[in-house]
Amino acid sequence: MSVGVPELQKLADSVVEQAKPGEQIEAYVSRGGETSVRVYEGELEHFVSAQSEGVGIRIIKDGRTGFAYAGTLEPSAITEVLAEARDNIQFGTVDQWAGLAEPDGVAQIPQKFWDEELANYPTDKKIEITKELEKLTLAADARVRAEQSNYEDGWAETAVSTTTGIRESGRGNSCYVSVATLADDGDEAQTGFGFSVGDSPKEFDLKKAAREAADRATRLLGATKPASKSVTIVLDPYVTSQFVSILSSALNGENLAKGRSLFADRLNEQVADPRFTLVDDPTNPLAYTATDIDGEGLAARRNILIENGVLKKFVHSSYSARRMNTKSTGNATRGGFSGGPGVGCLAMQVQPGGKTQAELIATIDDGVLIQDVAGMHSGVNTISGDFSTGASGIIIKNGTLEAPIREFTIASTLQKMLLNIIDLGNDIDWLPMRAVGLSLVITDVMMSGS
Amino acid sequence: MTKTQTAEPLVAPDVLERVLAKGRSTGAEFSEIYIEDKRSTSAGLDDGKVEQVTSGRDRGAGIRVVSGETTGFAHTSDLSERGLLAAAQAAALAAKQGDGGVHKVQLGDVLRHSVNTVKLSPDAVEKSRKVELLKRVDAAARAVNASIVQVSAGYGDSRKRILIANSNGVFSADEQVRTLLRVSVVATGDGGMQTGYDSLGHTIGFEMFDENDVEELAIRAAKQAVTKLSARPAPSGAMPVVIKRGSGGVLFHEACGHGLEADLVGKSASVYRGKMGELVASPLVTLVDDGTMTAEWGAIGVDDEGHPSQRNTLIKDGVLTDYMWDYLRARKEGRAQSGNGRRQSYQHLPMVRMTNTFVLNGKEDPDDIVRATKQGVYIAKLGGGQVDTASGDFVFGMTEAYLIENGEITEPLRESNLIGNGPEVLKDIDLLGNDFAMGNPGTCGKDGQGVPVGDGQPTLRVRSLTIGGTAA
Question: Which residue range forms the structural domain that includes residue A158?
Answer without folding.
Answer: 6-218
